[in-house]
Each structure stands twice: as C-alpha cells, then as structure tokens.
C-alpha cells in the first residue's frame, strides 16, 4: 500500500508539472520564449562545463561557462575567456550551434521545424510565429492589422526566414573562403573559419575563432566589407527581409516598418561614421596613424559594428571617452525588430522621433508616409526605452560598486551586453564572478527583449472597466 500511494503521488506530481509546463508554453509566446531561452542557456552551460569543451581538458569555472553560454545563445559576443585559445574543437562546435539557434530565434526555429515535419502550420503555431516575428503581436491590446504579419502569410514568412538565413550565411562563407585561402590559410582551417565567421556576422555575434581576431585582416577591405554586409543583413530583421523578398525595389509597396527600419538604419550608419571620424581622427591609438582612406573606411566599419556586429579592428579601450559615449548610444539603439540584433531597436527610436516632430508641429496624431501610428505603439516605444535605460543604469551602478572600475568603461560594456553587441573596453575579461553574473543577466534582458518581458507581465493584468477623473500634472 505505501508503494501504491507513493506511485500515485508521483504520478500526480508529474501530471501537475506537465500541466503547468503546458500552461506556460501555450498561454503566451513571450513566456514560451523565456522558458526555452533559459533551458538552452542551461544546456549550453552544462556542455561548456565539460572537460572536453576546454583546450586543456579542465572543467571551466561556472561563471565563465554560464557567461559564455549566455553570450552564445543570446548572440552577444562578449567573453570572459579567450575564445580562440580556451575552447577545444567540441567547445567551438557547441558555440557555433548555439549562435545559430539563438540567432534564428527559438520561436521561429520551432515553427520552422513544425512546418518541415507537418508541411503546414496550425493556428496556434501561426499565432506563436506571428508573435516572434512581430513584437506587437506579443503586446496586449488591439493591433492594427496593417502593421502585423497576417496569419495567412506566416508560412511564407517562416520559409523566408529559413531560406534567407541559410542563403545569407552560405553566401558570406563563399565570399570569405577564397580570401582566406589567398591569405595563405590552411584549406581545412579555412573550411572551418569561413562558415564560423559567416555565422558570427549574420547573427551579429562577433566571436572570432583565431588568435588576434580581425587584426590580421585590419587592412583587408574585402574581408571587412563582407563581414559588414553580413552584419547589416542580420540586423535588418526577418520582416524587412520578407518585405524585400516580396517587393524588392517597389518602395511604395514596402510596409511602414520596413521603411522606418531602412531609413533609420542608414541614417545611424552614416551619422555614426561621421561622428567617429570627427572624434577619433587625431587619436594616435585608433585612427590617428591611418591615412584619410583608411580612417574613413574604419569609421564606417566601427559605426556598423557598434550598432550590433561586435567585430573590432581597433582597440576599443583606447578610444576617447567621447567616442565611447557615442558608441554606447548606438549600441543602445541596436538593430531592427525581430532581427539578430539587440537594443531598443531602430523602429522604437523612429517612432519616438516622429512623436516629437508631430508634437512640435502641432499635429493631432503621429504620421509617417501617409500612415498614422496608433498611440499604443507609442506607449510601447516609451516603455521599451524606459525599461532598457533602467536595466542599463542598475547594471552599471552594480558593477561599478563591485569593481570600482571607471564608469565610462563599465557603461560601455553594460550597454554592449544589453544591446547584445559584443564590443568591450576590456572590462568584461577582468570582472569578478559577482559582476560577471550581473552582466550575464543584462545580456538575457537585452536578448529576450523589453517588449517580450513586458508582454509576459501584461498577460496577467486585468482589464479596467471604468475610467478615472482627469487631472493634468505640470510636465517640463
């Protein structure tokens, strides 16, 4: 009897666990994302902790294994150990696989697998996929259908995600392979490093498999241009790639999201290069020793990498404090929505800028390209910026208190973690374990996304069926 009772109790616990797990994974795409991302990070941490994962066959400390796993799954590129020398072939293979999984997005990847197996998507899978490819789908409240991906288009969108990701990475690999071979690299090494660099570029991660990183290619404009192109395509976002695949150069048919993403991305790219050129042209440790052509190219390369790429040719720690602040601003913005980039996203910045312009002109609504942007989108944009700034501020204060490092250097690395960029002033490699865990949590918050977290919390909120009296506080 005691055994029968124990068996029934165990079976009941299993049923309850399954029921709770099913509720978490099906009630909200955002909650499902958090659960799956957490599970993947724990699995990757366990794999990287194995002796076979390190080059010296020793167990990697938990703080380093967890941080590397977090940086891998969240496609960040920051590291507390030397990526080129610490990990074995097995460890690098784990990192390569984790970067690709994280870059595609767990929800999108799961939907693609379901599409391949069943050849069609059910309603629930379509809703989940729509929630991942369009953050507004995960936000509570009504969504303007002109700004969303319709359910009938989700199947085509997922095929575009899979095909575009594979095609872009394969294309980057094909472009890089001859350059590596002509540079004298061993063919077997080139066959490994070319796809590795391709994945790191498209997923906007920035890990480098060779000692010295991009230093051997600092003057190789061809390699740097190919990597910059891969970073640019990865940071656009799958909805924009989907729009470009369908309408190509028919600009009038582009969605408002695609237009805002492309325009804001190009403006930040050019403006960032101009500012870096102005601030660093006389710095002998960065651009000061280069001629005009090299300086201009490296300024554009740095501008693109601070948005999300994470590759670095110059020593970031040697940049002027003013340049580090500008880089922090660019990293905080990040790339496009539903992309491999992090940050608050360029469309968030565009919506807030349009709101300011509309308010200055006295317009009753925010408008762009003949379309009206609803107020709920503006509220989400404000929430994203406020939440992101709060995360960055708290993490910066905590790490500064733990380490007593220079605040500008710490801020740069914290914003790099939140924006899942991967550039570092050298602070990350010197962090003690408590500060390492704080920075790892910042990476997770940046990758999961402020909108996703807000949606997970908002899913439990109740609708208010009454209106309170109006009173206007003094603002400004």
TrEMBL record:
Membrane topology term reads: Multi-pass membrane protein
Task: Give the UniProt keywords, A-Z.
Answer: Cell membrane, Ion transport, Membrane, Transmembrane, Transmembrane helix, Transport
- InterPro entries xref list: Cat_transpt
Tell where it localizes.
Cell membrane
Q: What Pfam families does its record include?
A: TrkH
Q: Which positions, given as ranges, span the membrane?
A: 32-50, 93-117, 160-182, 221-244, 256-279, 329-358, 379-399, 437-459
Where's it mainly located? Answer: membrane
Q: Which PANTHER family match?
A: KTR SYSTEM POTASSIUM UPTAKE PROTEIN B, TRK SYSTEM POTASSIUM UPTAKE PROTEIN TRKG-RELATED
By what name is this protein known?
Answer: Potassium transporter TrkG
| The species this protein was found in | Microbacterium capsulatum
Q: What is the lineage of its organism?
A: Bacteria, Bacillati, Actinomycetota, Actinomycetes, Micrococcales
């Amino acid at each position: 009897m005691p055994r029968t009772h124990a068996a029934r109790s165990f079976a009941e616990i299993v049923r309850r666990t399954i029921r709770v797990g099913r509720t978490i994974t099906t009630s909200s795409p955002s909650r499902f994302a958090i659960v799956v991302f957490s599970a993947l990070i724990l699995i990757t941490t366990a794999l990287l902790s194995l002796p076979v994962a390190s080059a010296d066959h020793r167990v990697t400390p938990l703080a380093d294994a967890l941080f590397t796993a977090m940086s891998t799954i969240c496609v960040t590129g920051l590291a507390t150990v030397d990526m080129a020398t610490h990990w074995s072939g097995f460890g690098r293979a784990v990192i390569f696989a984790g970067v690709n999984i994280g870059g595609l997005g767990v929800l999108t990847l799961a939907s693609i697998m379901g599409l391949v197996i069943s050849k069609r998507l059910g309603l629930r899978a379509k809703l989940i996929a729509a929630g991942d490819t369009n953050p507004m789908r995960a936000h509570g409240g009504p969504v303007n259908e002109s700004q969303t991906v319709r359910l009938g288009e989700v199947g085509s969108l997922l095929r575009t995600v899979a095909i575009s990701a594979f095609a872009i990475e394969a294309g980057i690999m094909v472009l890089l392979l001859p350059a590596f071979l002509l540079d004298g690299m061993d063919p077997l090494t080139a066959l490994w490093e070319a796809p590795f660099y391709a994945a790191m570029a498209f997923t906007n991660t920035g890990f480098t498999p060779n000692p010295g990183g991009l230093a051997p290619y600092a003057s190789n404009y061809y390699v740097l241009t190919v990597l910059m192109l891969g970073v640019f395509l990865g940071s656009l976002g799958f909805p924009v790639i989907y729009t470009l695949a369908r309408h190509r150069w028919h600009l009038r048919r582009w969605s408002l999201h695609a237009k805002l993403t492309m325009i804001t991305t190009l403006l930040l790219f050019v403006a960032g290069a101009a500012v870096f050129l102005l601030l660093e042209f006389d710095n002998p440790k960065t651009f000061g020793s280069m001629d005009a052509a090299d300086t201009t190219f490296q300024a554009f390369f740095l501008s693109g990498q601070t948005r999300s790429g994470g590759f670095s040719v110059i020593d970031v720690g040697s940049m002027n404090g003013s340049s580090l602040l500008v880089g922090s601003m660019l990293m905080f913005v990040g790339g496009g929505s539903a992309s491999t980039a992090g940050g608050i996203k360029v469309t968030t910045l565009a919506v807030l800028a349009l709101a300011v312009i509309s308010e200055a002109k006295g317009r009753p609504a925010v408008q762009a390209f003949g379309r009206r942007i609803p107020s709920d989108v503006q509220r989400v944009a404000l929430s994203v910026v406020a939440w992101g700034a709060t995360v960055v501020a708290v993490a910066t204060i905590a790490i500064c208190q733990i380490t007593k490092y220079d605040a500008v250097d710490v801020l740069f690395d914290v914003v790099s973690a939140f924006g899942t960029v991967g550039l570092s002033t050298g602070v990350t490699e010197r962090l003690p374990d408590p500060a390492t865990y704080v920075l790892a949590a910042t990476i997770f918050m940046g990758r999961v996304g402020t909108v996703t977290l807000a949606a997970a919390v908002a899913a439990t909120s109740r609708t208010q069926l009454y209106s309170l009296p109006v009173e206007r506080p003094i603002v400004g």
